[in-house]
Amino acid sequence: MKYLLTFLLFLISISPSLAGDPQTGKKLFFGEIRFSNGGLQCMACHKVDGSGGTLGPDLTKVFTRYGGAEGIKAVLQGGTAFPTMTPIYREANLTDEEISHLAAFFEKMAQEGEETGRFPAGLFIFAFGGFLGLLFVSQAVWGGRLKSVRRKLVESSKY
């Protein structure tokens, strides 16, 4: 009887949510499901597999970098592991269930996803080309605008 009671207590203590569901973790990450304590969705600052914000680092391979689910849980519990995250999650800690779902999602991303650079080279080339185009247009439109004024100033300073 003693062993049966111990076994039942053990079964009760194991939460079925500890396994985590990658689909639920994905929905939590992208804000499709809100965090129960009102925390900001992860994608506001982070990206995975090329989608999301750029303030924080790419989390596609974070599962591998932090040594698996235990590393993820250690970072996310309390929400104050990083100074930028502290004001956001100080009063809105993630639940153990949410952390498990996110860890499962990050595990799936580590296997299937692909990290992207912080600033895509194509975007840089596009921005630089746009800058040069605007520079050319502004020179063509306003390039000779001040020559007559400057000429008068130079002439008046000679005397």
Automatic annotation (TrEMBL):
| Residues that span the membrane, as ranges | 119-142
Q: Where is the Cytochrome c domain?
A: 20-110
- Recorded GO MF terms: electron transfer activity; heme binding; metal ion binding
Which InterPro entries did the record assign? Cyt_c-like_dom, Cyt_c-like_dom_sf
Name the species this protein comes from. Aquifex aeolicus
**UniProt xrefs under Gene3D superfamilies:** Cytochrome c-like domain
Q: Which domain of life does the UniProt lineage start with?
A: Bacteria
| Alphabetic keyword roster | Heme, Iron, Membrane, Metal-binding, Signal, Transmembrane, Transmembrane helix
The upper taxonomy is:
Bacteria, Pseudomonadati, Aquificota, Aquificia, Aquificales
Protein name as catalogued = Cytochrome c
Q: Which residues form the signal peptide?
A: 1-19
